[in-house]
Amino acid sequence: MRQGKEEAISNIEQAIDLISVVKEIHGLNPQELNKLLRDSENFTIHFVTEKGLEVKIDVEKLAGCLPLHLVAVLLSSDRDEALLRYLLCGIRLLHSLCELAPRHTKLEQILLDDVKVSEQLIDLVFYLLIVLNDYGQDIHDSSPLPLLHSALVACSLYLLTGCISSQWQDLALVIVAHPKVDMFMDVACRAVHIVVRFLQNKLSAQHTDICARTSPTAESVISYLCQQCEASLQFLQLLCQQKPFRERLLRNKELCGSGGILFLAQSILKLHAPHFVESSTIMAALSRLKAKVLSILLHLCEAESISYLDEVASSPGSLDLAKAVALEVLELLKTGLSKDPKHLSASSDKTFPMGLLQLNAMRLADIFSDDSNFRTYITLYFTEFLSAIFSLSHGDFLSMWCSADLPVREEDATLDFELFQAAGWALDSVSSSDLSNTTNLEFNLMPNNNMSQASYVHQRTSLFVKVIANLHCFVPNICEEQERNLFLHKFLGCLEMDPSKLLLGFAFVSGPQKAATIHRNLRSLLSHAESLIPTFLNEDDLQLLRVFFDQLQSLIKPSELEENQVQEDRSLGGCSSPSLRRDPPNLNNRNGNLKEEMSENSAFQEEQFYVRSNHMDQADDITRQDMMDDKDKSVTPSGLKEIDRDVQNVETSGSDTSSTKGKNATDKLAERLRESTHAGVQEDEKVKTVQTEEKQRRKRKRTIMNDEQVAIIERALLDEPEMQRNTAAIQSWADKLCHHGSEVTCSQLRNW
Asked: What is the DSSP letter of 113?
């Protein structure tokens, strides 16, 4: 095959010297190339080289043979710095031609409509990523290879958006239809992982002295690596938002079953820049990186067809890795929640979005704590921090968790990656011996916030309640007996510790009032949580919080709680342990009437509570045996059962009709790639219904939208039955739904 390609290239080069052309004109941006084409005759441009020579270039021939030429060079050349530099020049030129294609019919017919050339472009990207997987071993810190490598990874990935489709749903369909889709997923994730390691090496103190690390040159290089890493990770994140790609990824044993995604996540979550804390650009980029990789994990965990956490838990090695990642998530939460928002608002002068790092971490904490494989682990490592939060002075607790406003909220953003500029900066940098005069490269950050301030704050509080509810939940047929009331007893033990070591800068109540303050904080959270139903919180989680409140209250001396009725809100320093009963009640005895045990202050009035779907009945019936005795379960309305059944049957429909890249060409390419895929893939895509239902019983049902959001979108569908085919309409309604509950993304709404 290699010989045939080399012969083809040899024949083409008789008419055009491709290597010289690539080296000479890759620096022309799309606007400059477009001007030359407008002034040309027969699609042949006249160009003067740096040596003053005038050359003629047939752009039509150049566009037709450039992808195959770059593949041949990639397969036949030594894998050194010169190869990476030339490939980056070629990718840069190829992208410029793709950018011009919609304006010139000849280019469009070759690069966008010709299925054969499109396949060559995809092969080029795939082969390039395979080659880039071989780098990363024993590369010296001062080598230019990290810059070239990181640029090539990002540029090769984004070349697909220029030559295939700029619509992510269309691009996902083409990639999934490719017979080597698993290989692409593997090498893409590994290549991004190598870039992360390059970045970590640059940030590490062991490679350079402090003066070099804090120099403008070092900061510009690290900032560039952050941008390339974020761009590449963002590419994977946007693909994971598409249902076909996400479900195909979940069936990839190397990345999901063996922990490939987890290794990538762990490396990113461990990124730290202690010597660049004053650089708002670098610190914000690292925060967005972590937020994006958490977003990828969230998309995988929330998939309904395959349980990602069950896949991870199928082997001891990947389960241990998942627990290590969960620990990193908890550390992120501890760091983020230990900062007083009032102090942040007073001193913060950041101008760069940090991403939804804290909110995504809380979402993952909710998911981990709701899974039987991780619940005990989360209890052991996070309960002390939760107890410290409830030990805050009542005023601080109210402002953090029971308020509709926060002084500072997170802002999400999408990096507007510019391939031409990214490749140019790397090429200029490796060609220059002095980077001190190099201008820093900065891409635009497009705001992504479709949540109101109140919605963000309420989601944050609801996730806090859900974590407590998950940790206190006990399902006899799933949980081990030693897990019964583990969270409660661990929480009580942690109350005897000094919370000021975990939450610096906050005020704590000391003396005998501590127990009363904890009780008061819990009661306020319970009251506030009631106001979040049904928009942000479901009745099940609130009920579990009530149970926790009641049982904790029963373990604290009544004399301590009576002081809570008359005490004023105080903010004092110090810490002391609450007085606990010597003889706690038998909490393992579930035969008593729970309602009689509860305090009047808990406002427990419900005789029964509702579940959202029949899918929850088995797991929730067991849970309710833990919370109630001889209570009649309410029957889920049949309409909701039908809705849930419909949700499971919905499949992603056709691609966006607004694509400017040629809908027919994309369809033809996807169909051709699908036909070349081995027949065995169809067998792999069958859902194992029995196993899936068994896995779902282990977790309480999660829903994307609350009742109000479902009602709104159902009414909208009556007026717009073809909404699913209109991306703009789906995005508009996703934004509107966010004002009535938790965040709903465009892809989530489309899949729903």
From this structure: I
